[in-house]
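Fold this: tRNA methyltransferase 10 homolog C
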Amino acid sequence: MQSANVLLKKIIRNSVLPFAAQHGMKKDLFPLSRTLSLSLCLKQENSGSPSGKLDLDAWKKVMKSGLQEEVSETVSEQKELSTLAAAREILEMWRLAGRSVPENITEEQLKTFMECPSKSAKKKYLKYLHLKEFYKKNDKRKMDEKRERRLEAQKQASETDETKKNSFVRLWANAMDKAYGWRVAQSMIFGQPLVFDMSYEKDMSAREVTNAVRQIVLCESFNRRSVDPFHIHFCNLKDDSLYCREFSKHYKEAWGKLLVTVTEQCYTDIFPKDKLIYLTADSPKVMKTFDHDKIYIVGSMVDKSIKTGVSLARAKRLGLETAALPLEKYLLWNSGAKNLTLDQMMHILLTLKDTGDWKKALEFVPKRKYCGFVSKPVHELKKTLNLINTLKLGRRQEEARRQFAKNYSKKLMQK
């Protein structure tokens, strides 16, 4: 009996009551509920189950309370929908008026907008939503552009890969590789030696040694593609050194086939001392011309802390001639140390060997370190500047003396 009453109540609440509330059938609804309950009681008496008295007044009160709740809920929902629609119309009017209003707004944001206490608060909230939507669209646009650029780069890479796979291009690359290898092989017999001193492992950290090896790899690559390459010697290179491990890591299987001379001996044991010139930025002697009969030595060192005098001290201990590049003679130096990287030194030496032109060679110096090339040596320019400054200072001193004497005489006259 209780389960049947619960089921009947659900049916009436979900189907009959909304229909009655919309069509104004409040009075006609109660006889229907009374007949349904009586018919249910009659069915129960016919089935032989124990019957009980039905309190129609109590049932009427229950039905009335349920009907009032359903009607109040529907009325509140209709009011809320009407206020939301009105708020959307206000937003549309503000958007047409040119105010900062978001294009898309959710119901929750609309409710928050309606709950704002003042008009200025509503404007600030709408501006916040507008900026948030604008940044979101901007991020999406950037992501789309980035995706398009990536796809375009992949497409270009695939096209270049297809061209590389072309048989003619591969044959050309192989032919050029053989030509470069033939030049380097000839330089190992007839070329001018260039020594890289590998005795600075103790003066560097592991990271600096790795950077030095990378620069030497670039030097070998530039030398290999040169018209007249050097015969490169890696001297003082031990098998268990960090230099050797980094070279093996980079070249892998090609390390044993590299067209360079690798030895543990010192360069003084291989070449005569009178032909050796140690290139160091700390040398007091400036290199004037490139000598094709000399053997130049480059220290394989990358020092982030700029340890001055290390390579110069080593050259003096070995009794070797030293030289520095004429940077101040041709360049108006701006700032920073005059130490260059190993690959920059290789570019300069190759250009000097091919052309003998210092201006072309020194173009490989980083432009951030100098203001430009000079027609006169820098020391002559410095002398001229010092002379101008002394003359200016002398004139200022004379004017100061005259002004002091004039003021002093005025004071005496006043007394």
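The chain is about 60% helix and 5% strand. Residues 26-53 have pLDDT under 50 and may be disordered.
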